[in-house]
Specification:
It is a single chain. This protein has a five-stranded antiparallel sheet, covered by helices on one side. The protein has a two-stranded antiparallel ribbon with strand order 1-7. The chain has a two-stranded antiparallel ribbon with strand order 3-4. By secondary structure, it is α+β, with helices and mostly antiparallel strands. The chain is 16% helix and 29% strand. The chain has one domain: SH3 Domains (SH3 type barrels, Roll), CATH 2.30.30.
């Protein structure tokens, strides 16, 4: 799974590089989908981010960061209609933990905030398919050219 996740992430970055990197409005996400969603649409159920999808390796397989001057919306599930739970500003680093085979543009991430500042558990092996611990913030982001791969 980790290899597929990293390959999907890498392929997405390669496609964006070939398409040309242009400044995008912040925050980055498929805003057309959000605008066209009716106000009365049913809520998308929250989905926890899982770690340990590629045992016995580190719980979360890669590390990336939001490019300077950019913003990523963090959602409660891999869907543009899911609740916005946070925003990551430029320079914010995050662990890449989970993916969705049916929605390859979405990535389950774990990251540190002022309130949840201990993500040490995600950089060591973990039990298979375990939710990211509450000591670490987590959610789903849509991958875009606003993200740069650091490790993994």
């Amino acid at each position: 799974m980790r290899k597929d996740l990293i390959q999907t992430f890498g392929m997405g970055l390669a496609v964006l590089a070939v398409a040309g990197c242009t400044a995008s409005p912040a925050p980055t996400e498929n805003t057309d989908a959000e605008v066209s969603t009716p106000a009365a649409a049913p809520a998308v159920a929250a989905r926890p981010v899982l770690m340990g999808v590629d045992e016995p390796l580190d719980a979360c397989g890669g590390y990336a960061r939001v490019k300077a001057g950019r913003t990523l919306i963090v959602r409660s599930a891999p869907d543009a209609a899911a609740a916005e739970i946070d925003r990551m500003e430029g320079g914010t680093g995050f662990f890449m933990c989970d993916g969705d085979d049916t929605k390859p543009d979405w990535l389950g991430v774990a990251y540190e905030t002022e309130e949840r500042g201990d993500c040490s558990a995600v950089s060591s092996p973990a039990a298979p398919r375990t939710p990211v611990p509450a000591t670490c913030a987590s959610g789903w982001v849509m991958m875009s050219n606003d993200v740069e791969m650091v490790a993994g």
